[in-house]
Amino acid sequence: MPFRIPGTQINWTNSSFLIGTGLATITAVPYYLWKVGIDWFQVALFLAFFIATGLSITLGYHRLFAHKAFKAAWPVRFLTLVFGAAAFENCALAWVSDHRRHHKHTDHDDDPYDISKGFWHAHIGWILFKINPEPPWDNVNDLRKDRLVMWQDKYYVTIAVTAGFLLPAALGWLYNGPVGALGAFLLAGVARVTAVQHMTFFINSLCHSVGNRPYSSRTSARDSWIMALFTFGEGYHNYHHEFQHDYRNGVKWWQFDPTKWTIWVLHKLGMASELRRVDDSKIISAQLSEAQRRVQEHLQTSADRINERTRELLHASAERLAEINARWNELKVHYREQVDALKKDYAHKTDEKWQEACHALEEMRREVRQAVALLDRLPAVA
């Protein structure tokens, strides 16, 4: 009989693997480094497998298979399925099924990694313990038609062990015999698996706890540039939850999103197509609506706890946002159709009307930023 915690049941397979690799990472790996040391090959191999498996999750499992944010040629799909398996985060069918339920039921009981059940549950507890029976994979019928996905599902364990542990060990053996094989197994295998898995887990936990919500406060998902640094750009999670089918998470050009850049490069190489993007007008509208909601919430809930200066700032911000919203609606009416028409013909992008429309759009973005900045300068008590 499995050991039970009231209302839970330990998933022994997942728990044994996660705890085993975690313990090996903090014991066997440091011991190897102390006894043998490390060289450029082991560092390069770790980074290569970290990037290959990490991007296979964010680019492949997540944006390609779960959200259909773009289409990819079979070599891209094949490699992301192979190295996605090497991340040991389950087969693509199971991963995508869980993730689609997460988006459909965010912060509610049917969300597999519901943050409202606690940070630990969202981070790793949902994998170690199974509170409810495994739900049917009835939300991935589209992927069942993909022969590569079904091939990975059938041979998942073999693919994962071969690509995740045996391949780096074999490369280490070729480089430096048994000692190199052991080092590669521990570093590019075990330690890398632990690092990539917790990178993914942080998206489910920290990205629902740390950061801001510039696009929508309907869910706990948050944007965090710090988390983006460790998650191949997945840290812009508030944007992603509001516009989940966009191939970009870091929608601004300066935001750190290596997954977006990789998809763009694949597109230029002819290996990816039909990249889905949310129209700028929808993004600005979402920011305006959320900023207005924040102002009204401050005015309604904090009126008796804020000083006169803060109250004046709030009213000024509300008026400014209302003015911007009216101008934005006018801009959409006057310029949206002609911008869409001119986009189809690159030669017309020097047209005076095109330049006028682009200038107006950029001016609107600047005004939104200024209004939101005013809101962010308010005292925390508000």
Task: Walk me through this protein's architecture.
This protein has 382 residues and is mostly helical. The chain has two domains: 270 residues, no CATH class; 97 residues. The protein has 14 helices and four strands. 38% of the residues are buried.
How would you summarize the topology of this molecule?
Elements: E1 4-5, E2 8-9, H1 12-26, H2 28-35, H3 40-66, E3 71-72, H4 74-85, H5 92-104, H6 119-128, H7 147-154, H8 156-205, H9 225-230, H10 237-242, H11 258-268, E4 272-273, H12 280-301, H13 308-343, H14 352-376
Antiparallel strand pairs: 1-2, 3-4
Helix pairs in contact: 1-8, 2-8, 3-4, 3-5, 3-8, 4-8, 6-8, 12-13, 12-14, 13-14
Q: Summed up, what is this model?
A:
Keywords: Fatty acid biosynthesis, Fatty acid metabolism, Iron, Lipid biosynthesis, Lipid metabolism, Membrane, Oxidoreductase, Transmembrane, Transmembrane helix. The protein has 382 residues and is mainly alpha-helical. The protein has helices spanning 12-26, 28-35, 40-66, 74-85, 92-104, 119-128, 147-154, 156-205, 225-230, 237-242, 258-268, 280-301, 308-343, 352-376; strands spanning 4-5, 8-9, 71-72, 272-273.
Number of helices: 14
Structural class of the helix and strand makeup?
A: mainly alpha
Taking Cα atoms only, what radius of gyration do you get, to the nearest Å?
A: 24 Å
Sheet with most strands: strand arrangement: 1-2
| Major pleated sheet | 2 strands, antiparallel
Provide the succession of SSEs: EEHHHEHHHHHHHHEHHH
Shape summary? globular
